[in-house]
Amino acid sequence: MLSVGEEFRGVWYRSDLNAKSRSPQILNRNPMPTTSSRVLKTRRHTIQLPVFLPVYQPHKETATLREWQRDFGIEGCIVNAYFLYKDREMRQRFKDGLELHDYIDFDGLIMTDSGAFQGFNRPLLLANKKIVAFQDAIGADVLSPLDLVTPPGDKRTVAERKLNATQKRIREAKRYCHQGMLAGVQQGGRFRDLRRRSVEEIMEIGVDYLAIGSLVPFFNRNHNLQFVADIVREARTIAGPEMPMHIFGAGDPVELPFFAALGADIFDSSSYGHYAAGGWYMTPYGAVKDHATLQLSGFNCSCAICVNRESSTIPEALPEADLRLHNLCTILKTLERIRTAQATGEIEGMLTDILERHAVCFPGSDLPESWATCNTPDVERT
Ligand SMILES: [Zn+2]
Fold first, then answer.
1. For residue 207, how far is its CA from the centre of ligand 1 (angstroms)?
2. What is the CA radius of gyration of the chain?
């Protein structure tokens, strides 16, 4: 009821309306250091963090990345290298010298995904070293090893086996990564000690980019941040203050400021499209489907789609293509607000405002209470 997993890292969508009723606590008892001056520096780009990388599917999108760059100022995107690799004709074109930036006509940062999430559902018959070498050869700026997705239901022995295999693949990937920057991907499932060990070993391997894998099902459950907060904070502590840290699959504007406050700073998702397909209109306070909830939020969008819509069309009844653009714009504007709030030291105020408005719109959401709990020292937790 709460989540449906599909074939992309970023595609787990939810219904806030199905949330169970619970009285929220707004109080954030332990303010945390939130200032970020981190940058992501690759061979070709220097990007101020935090940043959102929309999942771009070259064959499916109606807009080009250049249009998104012009209209929304996107600085980077993520493309699935597995889909390019498995297409024999495409693979040959790349082998003949086609470069990824030319293929999708985009000079911003391009991260590639390895197909790990597709491998979660079916055997890929794909070797780690081959997909890593492919990503490197086609000119990806940041590339991913073929890590093993570890859902919360995996028992300890399974999670540990997947962790060991993932670590081995990260080590191997390093040898095949000559131009691009390799993402070390944390796994470990629901086990904190395995997740800790994962980051410690990734730091020993030596990478310049840390990605947190298999976290979506945790925060996807009614916006519950508790496990995510523990994992992200601990990873930030181990990785140090300078390491760019990516949460795979995070793309709901109501959650991103909290993730940023915890120390994460790169997010990717195709949420804008999948929420639109389900009729969800994103707001900074939660995605809505009905006009009454939107009015409760007090949110008035100033994106080009919403400003120029027919006055008779209520925002959440926009056509799907318009809803996609509105959703993407809402995510990107949220990132801008996070940057500003971090630069001016106002992130706590931003979070408080979101918690209050979110609680009014979604009284059964876990967000306020889980945020309060994850800011309480372990010894005080019940
Ligand atoms: Zn809008």
1. 38
2. 20
